[in-house]
């Protein structure tokens, strides 16, 4: 999997995570994108997804799909396209991939957000964007964003521009 571009970000607090999510939600490329979230327990993966879905107009409860593996949403800002939040933490059987129709979900237009993608290694298509979240001693987060496709690269450039302005 090739990396077209890498950019660092820092979230000193939860508000910075929320601002990042709002900037991400405002990028037009987000409507049809696959984003992998990498980081240990408590790194902020689910918090980022919640902030992003809220910024896209999702109301009501946004829960972690840890036991269901996937939660589906219809964010108003995506103009009819779905958002799928995957959590592969408890994923262990490759047959589950086919049985659950995940291949079809990843092939269809929409926003795909995947936590613990390494648990589904070899089955996930390459992401457009991969975010690596690291918790620092002061509870801030370092985020490394890697673009793996031209679409992901365009989003990363736009996201950086929006966060800078």
Automatic annotation (TrEMBL):
InterPro entries (UniProt xref): P-loop_NTPase (IPR027417), T6A_TsaE (IPR003442)
GO terms for biological process, alphabetical: tRNA threonylcarbamoyladenosine modification
Lineage summary: Bacteria, Pseudomonadati, Pseudomonadota, Betaproteobacteria, Burkholderiales
SUPFAM superfamilies in UniProt: P-loop containing nucleoside triphosphate hydrolases
Name the UniProt record assigns to this protein: tRNA threonylcarbamoyladenosine biosynthesis protein TsaE
Highest rank taxon of the organism: Bacteria
Similarity section: Belongs to the TsaE family.
Pfam families hit by this protein: TsaE
Subcellular locations according to the entry: Cytoplasm
Originating organism: Roseateles aquatilis
Keywords: ATP-binding, Cytoplasm, Magnesium, Metal-binding, Nucleotide-binding, Transferase, tRNA processing
Entry's Gene Ontology molecular function annotations: ATP binding; metal ion binding; transferase activity
GO CC, one annotated term: cytoplasm
């Amino acid at each position: 999997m090739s990396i077209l571009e890498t950019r660092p970000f820092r979230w000193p607090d939860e508000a910075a995570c929320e601002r990042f999510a709002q900037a991400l939600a405002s990028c037009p490329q987000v409507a049809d994108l696959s984003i992998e979230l990498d980081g240990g327990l408590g790194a902020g993966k689910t918090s980022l997804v919640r902030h992003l879905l809220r910024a896209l107009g999702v109301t009501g409860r946004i829960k972690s799909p840890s036991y269901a593996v996937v939660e589906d949403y219809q964010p108003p800002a995506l103009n009819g396209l779905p958002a799928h939040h995957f959590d592969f933490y408890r994923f262990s059987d490759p047959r589950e991939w086919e049985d659950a129709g995940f291949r079809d979900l990843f092939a269809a237009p929409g926003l795909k957000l995947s936590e613990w993608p390494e648990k589904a290694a070899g089955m996930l298509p390459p992401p457009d964007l991969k975010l690596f979240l690291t918790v620092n001693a002061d509870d801030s987060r370092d985020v490394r964003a890697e673009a793996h496709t031209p679409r992901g690269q365009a989003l990363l450039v736009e996201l950086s521009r929006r966060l800078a302005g």
